[in-house]
UniProtKB/TrEMBL annotation:
Lineage: Bacteria, Pseudomonadati, Bacteroidota, Cytophagia, Cytophagales
Species assigned in the record: Dyadobacter psychrotolerans
Start and end residues of each TonB-dependent receptor-like beta-barrel domain: 509-906
Matching SUPFAM superfamilies: Carboxypeptidase regulatory domain-like (SSF49464), Porins (SSF56935)
Domain (TonB-dependent receptor plug) ranges: 135-229
GO cellular component, one term: cell outer membrane
Family stated for the protein in its record: Belongs to the TonB-dependent receptor family.
InterPro entries: Beta-barrel_TonB (IPR000531), Beta-barrel_TonB_sf (IPR036942), CarboxyPept-like_regulatory (IPR008969), Plug_dom (IPR012910), Plug_dom_sf (IPR037066)
Protein name: TonB-dependent receptor
Keyword Signal: yes
Amino acid sequence: MKTKLFTILLFFFTVSFAFADPGTIRGTIKDAKTKDALIGATVLIEGTQIGAAADVDGNFTLPGVPAGSYKIIISFVSYKTKEIPNVRVESGNTTVIDTEMDEEGTALQEVVVRSARVTNTEVAVISEIKQLKPIAVGISAAQIQKSQDRDAAAAMRRIPGVSIVDNRFVMIRGLGSRYNAVLINDVITPSSEVDTRSFSFDLVPSNIIDRMIVYKSGSAESPGDFAGGIIKIYTKKRPEQNFIDAAATIGYRGNTTFQNAQTHERGGLNFLGLWSKDQSLSSAFPARSADFNVLSNQERASFARLFPNNWALKNVNIAPDLRLALNIGKRFEIGNVDVSNITNINYSLTNQRADVNLSLYQNGLIANEVFEKYTDASYQRQSRIGLLHNWTFRFSPVFTMEWKTLLNQLGNTETVVRNGQKVIDGYDALSYSQRFENRTIVTTQVSGDHKLGELTKLNWITGYGYTGRWEPDWKRIRFQRITGATGADGQPAPFAAVTPNDPTANEVGHFFSKLGERVLTLSVNGEHSFGNPTDREPNRIRFGLYGERKDRDYENHFYGYNNIGNASAILTQGIGSIFTPENVNGQTGGLTIKDGTKDLDSYEGINNYTAAYLSGDVNFGSKAILTIGFRGEYNNQQLHSYIVNERKELVNNKIFIPLPSLNFTYRVSEKQNLRLAFSSTLNRPEFRELAPYAYYDFNLQADIRGNTTLKTAKIQNLDAKWEFYPSANELISVTGFYKHFKDPIESFLLPVGGNGLAYTFINAGSAENYGVEMEVRKGFVNAVSPFIQNLTLVGNVSFIKSTVNLGEFVQGPDLGGEIQNYDLTGLTDKKRPMANQSPYLINAGVYYADPATGWQWNVLYNVFGQRIFAVGNQNNPTVYETPRNVIDLNISKRIKQNLEIRLGIQDILNQPVRFAQDFNRNGKIDKDITSMTANADQDIRKFKRGSYFTLTAAYTFGRRTVIP
């Protein structure tokens, strides 16, 4: 591996020197009196066509200047034209000009120039990435708009080394979402999921995004808890002009829209993501199962009658999807304070129907020997209300304060009707899952930016975040009958509900869960420059503190029905009538309930996290810069649960970890950089991974339980990148990386009897992850054909390999929750790829934009290599998710200045989502084999989502008022 890395680095150096340029002139233009940047000032080399305009910081660059001596002419409206003679340019070197301009006079005093730093264009994002010290990639709001991606998850697919799981979770460099840090406006976001450390990127609608930057290498300023990448989402904040925009989208999905489906109701406000009060668990229920289950059958039945009998399903014809958005931007003054506001309100109601084939196998010597086989008729209706409300107050050129708030309210109504057979047992099976999930995510933060003179900057951020997740009354029931059995009339025998004596999560009952997580953050960051403040690259020192307090409360309750004596007359009734009050009576021949909740099914989590960092730049001439950083992180993670009404401490992990980092940039020329990076990072276990309770996943038919012995993983990261910028909106880059993990956290399939599945989380011994990423962005502004001039090609490809070495044994809970050491000899493969790691990722796009006619279109392509979905062992083969080729087409037309019409077709190929197990254990899924041969790999789950068509109308009310 060291030889491979050395070869990659040598290649970067060789290629980079081959592209050296003749010479460059760059500099900064400011007002001589106020020292403000003169945005848009024109710089021209006399007698040539070489020129440029100053950017929002007053900086300009004139690349590709032949060696010689020149006169530079600088002009700007209302300022005296300035001439600088005898500017010498040497081959391969950079000449720096920093100058100031004087106002021409008082005749134009009423002209006021104001501008905010432009950050949401493709050129701005490329420029930001180029100037960053760590290795990074990104995507702008402009590119997101062209792609017509609906949310941050869809937009992230366009970024090199990134793939998406379940249309909402992000994987970077083949590493699962647990290895990513996510920040919104530079504040760490809490996990949006209960059972995994993940942020659901579909929560962030695309029309509120300013840009997204993905840091691939670490730095002292960034949080240390990552290995794949640090994803920073910046929302829109300060409009350049007053505006009011509105948009409406109608969506049609094949296999879903206008199709019939079965669903259940959750109250009159279900379309807003809310549920009716009668879905909540009554406070009359005893808190502990031990207190509830000692009650008599009749007393427990009286509690059961508090549950509404709303099990019956109804047939619906699925309407088209609907999305609405309103954007308002205002700027005004209060005294001498420049005030601006951006408000975005969005609403969506979407549908997804699928027929899912689900199979479980004997996994013996005979291929495709089915144990259970089902077809799931799945229907989901999702609603979302989102609000972005950002204020900016510019008190003076040296002090700006911002207040940003982001709210998402989501509801997901999911109904699954599972029909099939338990083949080996000789039963027909019919199961129902009626689930509603509600999520509320709120983040609000106040920040301030201060300039303490020309050399020192200071900023601070204080924030509060809340994540709430409720599953009110998840109802599950399973019916069965003997295969082929008939009644006295010769018709198939009726199904009978299965009601075990002791409640189990995969049988009939009511499940309730509630999670609340509150996060308080405070961050202070400073920067001081040494030497001349007008230097383009002065030596700088950066320092800061970060503090976070996280509190989580989680509880769940499960109540299962059981019969008293022979209740076959009731259990063979339809799903809508079994649980009527007269049947749930606690009498012989009737039904009652028991509480299956355990004390460990609820927990309290507390996490105190503090960090301090210091970093500095060391310049080696005008071409090389080394950034040295050190970050120290202290974390205290605690987990408590109430056992027999006594608060017990289950976890108390206190750990301090030093995190050094190095980022080196060598400027081969104005258009080329060579970057090298090293960083130490870590990966902490999440509360859910530590909490020892078992959660039943209906779709996977598996229990998932936590492990209180998990340790913090430590990672060493090496990166090397060559980047070439032919023009302001073009780039070519090649990146190589290597990562070494100690104690990585992985999922582990517990050895259980029969065909039941139970997963936990363990620390493997070590792991490696390495690969190469390549990105190209190419325009054709100098082409002869106007059509070609309007084209942009974008593509990136990643090749990744990883290996987990589990070691001789791992530590984890058994089915009873007791911690033990599992000897891996003969139990599972000791070496395998990391879970969810794809061996390759490919993204490509062709963009066309004609500003003269208002036409835009693009064709986008995405595919990932097969990756481990569920880790197996010797009894159960590993399950892989197989590749899907995805092609999207988007077309838009601007009509005059007020109206834009957009047409989108997503997932044109509509290839199946397929999960297959590696029956022949060769580490891959060979193909879709259905034969009975010994080499057959077997489908576990398979379905099609359907191609998706959207039609959007976006309208601007009135004329946009440009702020002077």
